[in-house]
Amino acid sequence: MNKLDANFNFHQTALNLRAQRQELLAGNLANADTPNYKARDFDFSAKLKDAVGKLASPSGLLGAAATVAGGAASLAALPATLAAGGPVAAAKSLLTTAAAHMGLGKDQADTTLTDSEVKYRATPQGSVDGNTVDADVERNQFADNALRYEASLTILRNDIKDMMSALQG
Amino acid sequence: MPSLFNVFDISGSAMSAQSLRMNTVASNLANADSATSANGQPYKSKQVVFNATSLGSPFSSGVAVQKVVEDNSAPRMVHNPESPLANENGFVTMPNVNLTQEMVNMISTSRAYQTNVETMNAAKAMLQKTLTLGQN
Predict the structure, then answer these.
(1) Quick one: pLDDT band at residue A95, thresholds 50, 70, 90?
(2) Which candidate from B3, B63, B125 shows the least CB-CB separation from A19?
(3) ipTM of the prediction
């Protein structure tokens, strides 16, 4: 529906996931000296594909706002939609009571990580205290992730620039 | 809520934990020759125990110092018959501080602290770059 949003969506999702990965890697580095700590990470490209893929299919639309047609009838149906949507769905989306209303949250991909997606890093050589953090590997991934985050930002900035020049001529 | 701001909390927790570790190293090194203390016993080497704590999003964790333990390994015996603390054989019980181990601990602590400072700086740079998004 909203082409402007859809255009930015991919990079928005990617940035969200990059930020989450950065947090995980920071946690790994912070726990480099904690006994029995196991380094964790997730497969970025798989998760991104999954999140964007779910978005493309109509069933994956999260918290899709219920569109109610008609003026007076929509007002009567309002409490019903709120009850059906529950407090969580209502908080995530705007209520659209007319056909011309724009929904919010329809175009947002779900980037919540699950326990099965966040894996433990395999390490060729663990330490005696049960810690599996290899500081070099983590630092490497950390720098890589930061750079790719900034790359996404740069591309997004260029997209916005293009859009602005299209709008302003 | 997942956010880059959590990186500050995580790295910050690690930095304070590492400074506590640095404090114990300083204490151990300073008291390497303290043959007696407030309780009349020679100083005992102290070590910190780190523990991962849940911080930020469900899968990331920060660091907390769980406890500070006393090293119960055998004390160093030094032959010094002139000392008032010497036993009948002329040996004085000295602290069980392992100087080599403490120096290694110190270097490891300092490197870990540096890593976390860099982590924080990287997160800060990313956030600042994000703030300029959309400005020309």
Answers:
(1) confident
(2) B3
(3) 0.85
B126 touches chain A (CB under 8 A): yes
Token output for B116: 């976390």
Chain B positions in Cβ-Cβ contact with residue A109 (cut-off 8 Å): none
Q: How far is A135 from chain B (nearest CA, A)?
A: 9
Cβ proximity of B14 and A31 under 8 Å: yes
A residues 109..138 contacting B (CB < 8 A): 111, 113, 115, 118, 135
Q: Which stretches of chain A are assigned E, i.e. beta strand?
A: 40-42, 118-120
Contact B2, A20 (CB under 8 A): yes
Q: How far, in Å, CA of B45 to CA of B119, rounded?
A: 31
Q: Per-residue pLDDT tens for A6-15?
A: 778 888 889 9
Report the 10 Å Cβ neighbour count for B89: 8
B22: exposed, middle or buried (C-beta count within 10 Å: 0-12, 13-18, 19+)?
Answer: middle
Task: Convert the pLDDT of each residue in A33-79 to its tens digit.
Answer: 999 999 999 999 999 998 888 776 544 343 333 333 333 444 444 44
Nearest CA in chain A to B130: A153
Residue A61 to residue A76: CA distance in whole angstroms: 25
Is residue A97 predicted with pLDDT exceeding 90?
no
CB atoms within 10 A of CB A141: 21
Dump pLDDT digits (tens) for B13-32.
999 999 999 999 999 999 99
pTM of this structure: 0.77
Which residue of chain B is at minimal alpha-carbon distance from A162? B136
The helix (H) or strand (E) run that includes residue B69 is strand B61-70
**What is the three-class DSSP state of B70?**
strand
Count of beta carbons in the 10 Å neighbourhood of residue A5: 14
